[in-house]
Structures are given as C-alpha cells and as structure tokens.
Design a protein that fits this description.
With 252 residues, the protein is of the alpha/beta class. The protein has 8 helices and 11 strands. The strands form 2 sheets. An 8-stranded mixed beta sheet has the order 7-8-9-10-6-2-1-11, sandwiched between helices. It has a 3-stranded mixed beta sheet with strand order 4-3-5.
C-alpha cells in the first residue's frame, strides 16, 4: 500500500483535490493509498450540506478562512494546522464492506492506535471521542467499486472557539439540509497537557491502518498524472464558487 505523508500545512483546495484525484486513480486500478496530511485553515462542508446552515460566512471572510466543499458526505469540519487528516483510498471497497462496516473498521483501528497513549479514546459511528468530546470525525465517498475514507484528528488546540466558525455548535442550529452532528471538541494535546507533534500521531495511525487491511506500507510519491489531476482540480473545481456554494446530492 502506498504511503503519502505531508505534514506541512498546505492549500486546502489542493488537499481536497488530492483526495479526489487519488480516488479516481484507485477507480482506474491504481494501488491503494494511505495519506496523512495537514491543511491550512478552512471550513469544509459535506457534499450535500448548505453552507449558510453550517458556516459563519461573515466571520470566515473577516478571518480569511476559505469555505470549501468536499466530495464525501457527513458534517462540516474546521481544518487548521493542528488538525491531522488521514485518508484511506482503496480500489476495491469490498475489502472493508459497507459504509457502516468501513466506519467501524477504520474508526476502531484509529481508536486502538491512539488508545495506547490516550486510554480514553473510543469511537462511535464516525467519530473519535475522548469521553463525550470529539477528537475526530470521518466521512466517505465511493465511486464505482473504489472507496475514499478520511478522518480528522485534532492534535493541537484550535486557537479560536470552534463555534465562531461552525454553526452546528451554536444553540440555535437548525439546518435545512444534511445536518452536522454537534459535539464539544478536544485535542490530544489538551488531554495530555503537552505539545504533541503531527509526526508522533501519524506514526501511531499509519501502521494501525495497514494492520487492519493486512498490508504493508511503501512510501511513494504521486505519479505525474496524479499531480496534474490534483493541480487541475485545485485550480478549477475546488476554486469554483459554483461547486463550493451549491449543495450536491451525488458524488459528481
């Protein structure tokens, strides 16, 4: 299984485009990929959500926080330099089964890996939890027989109150479309009261995912074709207000 690690915060448009490009590669028969990556600040809504229900656009605009739409379902999240993203891209989703089975498989693997250092880490549905607080949330997209599973892991404190960005954390949240599932959040660093590195957490998660899939990891870069596809998607689709603002009901 190919391993891609880039822990330097990058353009969130490129980050989302890379997940889609890798899903398309897998759909075409490319090797399975495990990707660990970090975005600069961005509010990311699910494929079928309404931005006006999920994000405080006025605050985001003042703070220079882009609001983007991903291809997977689920709720809105806030990406920032202290948030580690993990993506698993499989050419054949049957390796992990249904949507619910994939959430259980990968959520369980992530919780087990983190629980070595943070014993209170657990998972429920598509969330990683410490007690009742959310430390990560996952989503999926499927095209043909291929699967994209990705999850966030809050490694360091967010720096701003999450409710300033995400409306689901406010008491008057009443979405018209697909809702987020509001939970209080906490980072791994806050739980341990020490400044953790992304590399520390990535080193725990990567082998756990490989074990769950019964495979080994081989570091390898994007192909030239994949790089070109990522660049094209980042500059067009993920930079297009028509995509980012309009709720979608398909994986297109």
């Amino acid at each position: 299984m190919r391993l891609l690690i880039d822990l330097d915060p990058g353009d969130p448009r490129w980050g989302l485009a890379a997940d889609e490009a890798l899903l398309e590669s897998a759909r075409g028969g490319a090797p399975d990929t495990l990707r660990l990556w970090v975005n600069d600040r961005a509010a990311i809504v699910g494929r079928s959500q309404a931005i006006e229900d999920e994000v405080d656009r006025a605050f985001a605009d003042r703070e220079g926080i882009p609001v983007l739409r991903r291809i997977s379902g689920g709720g809105a999240v806030y990406h920032y330099s202290g948030n580690l993203n993990l993506s698993v891209i499989l050419h054949d989703a049957r390796a992990v089964g249904s949507v619910a089975e994939a959430f259980r498989a990968f959520g369980g693997a992530a919780a087990e890996a983190l629980a070595d250092a943070w014993p209170r880490v657990s998972f429920a549905d598509n969330d990683l939890l410490i007690g009742a607080a959310k430390v990560g949330g996952a989503a999926q997209a499927r095209r043909g027989g291929a699967l994209l599973y990705h999850t966030t892991v809050l490694v360091r404190p967010v720096g701003i109150p999450m409710e300033r960005v995400l409306l689901a954390l406010r008491p008057d949240y009443r979405p018209a479309r697909v809702p987020s599932r509001p939970r209080a959040t906490v980072s791994l660093s806050e739980v341990t009261d020490r400044d953790l590195s992304m590399a520390d957490v990535a080193a725990r998660l990567a082998p756990a995912m490989a074990r769950r899939l019964g495979t080994s990891l081989v570091p390898a870069p994007l192909t030239h074709e994949e790089e070109a596809r990522v660049d094209r998607l980042a500059k067009t689709k993920y930079n297009d207000p028509g995509w980012n603002r309009s709720a979608r009901t398909t994986n297109a």
